[in-house]
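Table S7 (text form). Paired inputs.
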Amino acid sequence: MAEAEQALKKTPLAEEHQRLGGKMVPFGGWTMPVQYSGLVDEHTTVRTGAGLFDVSHMGEVRIKGEDALAFTNYLTVNNVTKLEDGQAHYTAFCTPEGTVVDDLLVYREAADDFLLVINAANIDKDLAWIRRHQGEYRVTVTNESDETAQIAIQGPLAQAILQRVCDVDLGSIKYYWFQRGKVGAYDALISRTGYTGEDGFECYCAAADAAAVWRLLLETGAEDGIKPAGLGARDSLRLEARMHLYGNDMDETTTVLEAGLGWIVKLKNTDDFIGKAAIAAQKKAGVTRKLIGFRLLGKGIARPDYAVVDQGEPVGRVTSGTQGPTLKQSIGMAYVPEHLAAPGSTIQIQIRNKLVDAEVVKGPFYKRA
């Protein structure tokens, strides 16, 4: 056990979490805080005020050079040619079969300079994937993960708190756009993005500056009740907003269309990209299963890997599930046959030794006003 703990990576904020009483757990090869004051308290604080998250375990890979635009467009399913300087979008790496290698954000700093933000557990895999497909593209691929920290401030009070210590006019940054500026005395890339369903920002800074930025934001937001938040609240918040988690809701066994991510796939993009032919063929033929959202109609919590049952037969599995603190009901996502995926359909979830009815729900479970 001691060896396993030693093998876990630590973010630049590990000592800050311990100082604040964060309960540390293994996550994707890292030791991360699962909670501080409690999942429900942290979740509610983000929905009503502001919460601060350490997201420094995420990976950052820079693609730079005269073919950076073409190469990034070939690697990912969204249309990178539509991005402007200072704009980002959500996308995915897909296999030639159309299954999901990873989901990620692409930030365009310039036509020859793109920052890719990838999932923590996939850093080595994704880096190998990028380099394997580099071919004749004239680019340099640099792993900046160890030198970069990411701190997310999320919630309705996030902008007001961050603005007090930021030299950028945050009101001018639109959703999925970013600017470079300073947080306190520290250089940062400030992005209006997040994984909670609330308004907020993700601040990328040097790993060496992370603790100072973290403390500054907690001190600045103290009068507004800002709180550090852990993985538990991050998961319940993202699930209420119906945002996918790689490794749960999609992976290399599920296609991007089955995962309900067809909206990020730009087949009309005239350029080729990895998986394009397979995705186009599946779109034409239609999928046989879909990732759906559901809410339980009875008591219980639908946990990941619980069976989905129809007419007494298992037909799928829960990929994500929790009790939504804002909604005060049990919600989840699951893969089911296509004929059961229509909103309003009734399925059953096997919770221990009983079957509990659930209703298929369209769209996010929670949407901020």
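Next pair, protein 2 of 2.
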Amino acid sequence: MGILGMHDTDAIGKEKIRASHAGGYDATSDIELVAVADVDEENLTTFGNAWGIPPDRQYLSHESMLSEENLDVVSVCTPSFLHHDHVVSTARSAAAPDVIWCEKPIASSVSDAEEMIDVCEEENTKLVVNHSFRFTNKLQQLYALLQEERLLGEVHSVSTQFRMELLRNSTHLLDTLVYLLDSRAERVSGYISGENEAVESLNVGLEVDDSAGGGFVLMNDGTFATIDCTIPRSHSSMTLQFIGSDGKLYMNNDDGEWRYWRLEDSDHIETPLPGIESAWTWNEDYQGAFANAACHVQSLLDGTATNASTGREALRSLEIIVGFYVSHYTGSQVNIPLERPLRDVEITSW
């Protein structure tokens, strides 16, 4: 219906919020939102009324919906610890969707994520993970500049900062990092603060593992990255600073500031980013990301696109987060991919 902390609570369920899965489908030309399932009857009715879903297509369990409906695409917008069960059961269900659009993070453990990926591949179901920044035009343009045109040359290091908590929020930051570098973590060292401001803001009355934290990540392309996700929401900005052999790049998404310097004769000369007129902003780019993602889902259904946010790519950010926890609680550096027992480590969140 909408995201607590990002939208006016009074508006959720009463307005058609653009930055939501339902809002994304509403923006497409050929996808119709026909059914909904929720174990909370009040939320179910509120959602159904807001989006015009008939009462006989509002289900109190996902199992009943999947047994009654013949669906092309299913959105999984449940808490992260339920993603595994819901994606696996959906892929194997009689509804037989061609696409599952799952909220981030992909799962609460690496082994759960791996099974989700394997089952979807077995069932020939495309798993799309909603790391929404991937669906913004400017980030796609920046990816092309870094990977195809080698704007920065060889990237040596990246410094990043975003708000707490690691699973709930900073999976976005880490996915942006691995996406723009087009690489995977090789070794991590982590710090977990134990702070979680979502407990109060979401009024859940439940303690979870998910908290503020960070550390360093050595990528398999040799890039050294530092991650600081210890800052409260009201004080934070999503920032990334890339230092490369041919230049440097500064990104601040909250303040809408992207700056690029090319390296020329040992001097950094500030230059406009080629082909990108303005910086990424929350109000413009994030708000439109859900519509872009839903249109991408439509293209996958039409067979005219390649999955831009696969489960395997989403796994790369989850590996880093789990690695941070294992590193913190064992006092050691952790190699990626995680060894078999560590793949089962579960980080509880919502």
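The chain has a mean pLDDT of 93.
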